[in-house]
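Q: Fold this one first, please.
A: Sequence and structure below.
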Amino acid sequence: MMTPPTTQLSDRFAEALTYAFQLHRHQVRKINGTPYIGHLLSVTALVLAAGGDEDEAIAALLHDALEDQGGIAIRAEIQHRFGEKVVAIVDGCSEVYTLPKPPWLERKQGYLDQLRQASLSVLRVSLADKLDNARSLVTDLAIYGEQMWQVFKGGREQTLWFYQELITIYRQRLPGLQLTELEQLIQILTESAVAPQTDTIVGSLDH
């Protein structure tokens, strides 16, 4: 029986894990209020499961740091602490990290354009991010029903359009089991009309 190669994680990963916790410790998922670090850990686990190396795993922990936790200043610190490859992956997984943000559709189109030219490392982290988000969306749909879409700036139609465009890019450049799962989840979101079980949605969400 063949044993698949495993990624060896060093103290750099432990440092990145602590740093990610420090950056996001007060951030929560905006619909269900769970600690945001859970999303970062899930994305990292998916990257490692897909054969990602330590730099990709570190970038997975930090993939939202620029957009959510400080932009240019945080980018410089990531570059200094974890190197060029990590910061390049985080760059590739970020839409924008300057204010004011461009309009929603412009941001999403820009992200799609950069993914079409991205490295496989960027694609691996991006796919893991979108897969974990899609898993959460399916769960939230089951709890809140179709009213969930009201908290998305793009609404149901444009949000699902964005995911379908992502799938097209991943299919061309990074096919595999994680993509298959993402396709299945987006199909569920497209077809489902689950009745809401509660009238309360916590906060708002901008994927």
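Q: Good. Now the second chain.
A: Here it is, same layout.
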Amino acid sequence: MMTPKAVKLRVIGEVQGVYYRQTCRSVARSLGLVGSVRNMADGSVEIRAQGDSDAIDRLLDWAWVGPAGSSVRGVESESMPFDNTLADFLIQPGPGH
């Protein structure tokens, strides 16, 4: 049985310009998650994801590693309300874009 979970993650480190968002989208989609990922003005990456709690946990584990070339120093996680309107996992424009 699926246990739904929705989280917002803030990934800190060398995570922009290393295909972090593209790889995150691929990983999230392969886990059956919906949501979005975007670069933030402070150099971090924000991930909003929802789906099965086991899949969310696997995405969180991946977020600490990231793609080759990234250097993750921290991942902050907080729960979010579930949004039933989401149907895919997308790359969103960051602030100022």
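Q: Anything worth noting on the second one?
A: The radius of gyration is 12 Å.
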